[in-house]
Amino acid sequence: MTKNRSTNTQSSSVRPHVAESSLSEAQFKVAVTVDTLKMGDFQARWEASKLLAKSGAVAIEPLLVILEEEDSDWELLWFVARILGNIAHPAAVSALVNLLATATHEDVAGMAATALAHHGTTAIAPLTTLLQQEATRLFAVKALAQIRHPEAISPLLTLVSDPDPAIRAAAIEALSHFHTPAVSTVLLPALADLTTSVRKAAVIGLGIQAAHMDTPELGQLTQHLQERLRDFNLDVCCQAAIALGRIGTNQAADALFEVLQSPHTPVALQLEAVRALSRIDTPHALESLHFLIKHSVSASAQLATLLTSDVQQEILAVLGRTESPKTQEQATQILLDLLHRSGQVLTLKHKQTIALSLGQLGQPIAIDALIHLLADSSASVRFHAIAALKQLDWQQSYQRLHEYADRFDLDESFKQGLTIAIQEWMN
């Protein structure tokens, strides 16, 4: 939107087109600044707009004059709208309503709507009026969405069945941030809307609403969202996975686990489902991840053909990001079990990510397993193991390194790895 406007008149030499003696000091300063706003380049206008916003009501009249001038360029009108949004006065609201109704440039109309939203509840009534006009309806909806006040709910509810899908989607998105039974009531039917953007907005909105629902409601919502995991549009499917992660129940975890076992699930949805399971962060959800990773790294397992290397990597990574103490211990055990049972088939990237996750989990029980990774033939795996050890109990890790180094039954590669680790420890 930025325009480089050149002018021979520098802002420092601009003078208002009115006699100084007829103005108060405040009015004179505003007049000077308004002239800079009108004739300056973008940067000068930006600075002038900040000054005018601080001037308050005294700046409104000269700004209204600009709005009435037919030769005002759209960038200037954009700045005027921005300024009026920061002046708490009924005249500013009226001017913005008129500008939104008459603007011929989309950016100007958008800024007028945003500026109206800055006025809060005083703008709800005029914005509701603008909802009746097709040309201004979408901008009015977006402005109401920014106000976030219960008084905006009623006018927004009238738009969830609007013929224009863009209006429906915008209204649903705006309503999603209000936590009342009426909102959930209108969001659920929107899950079956024929327009993708509306279904997506409804899925996102219901995921937000989930934090304020009781157990029976969450059960019903999970069933509805599970259907959207098989939506024709992949974005809707991914948003459904995210919403199920927000619900966070065992039923939601089972729905995500089910989609991960389907041979028809796209990789993008698999990744979102894995992340959603990790966000649920319960023993039940982690057990699902354990099952998936345990079977997918085995060449003979059916899941090995279902989950790509990227999805396997994501499972190993999210296990390291669990947050509650109980699940951190469980995640550590899962990763240690994987090293113990599947060490021979783990790839280089698998072992690197396991080491990284064990370090993030910070459980001292992982020290010995990480030390054994120092015998790996890959220098990268060894350095990942060293970095992880440094994140655990520093003294205990250092002591165990020396205990291993003093043993005589180790092969040369293991001894070399231990030597490097001890050297790195002191850096």
TrEMBL record:
GO terms of molecular function: oxidoreductase activity
Keywords assigned by UniProt, alphabetized: Antenna complex, Phycobilisome
Matching InterPro entries: ARM-like, ARM-type_fold, PBS_lyase_HEAT
Entry's Gene Ontology cellular component terms: phycobilisome
Protein name (Swiss-Prot/TrEMBL): HEAT repeat domain-containing protein
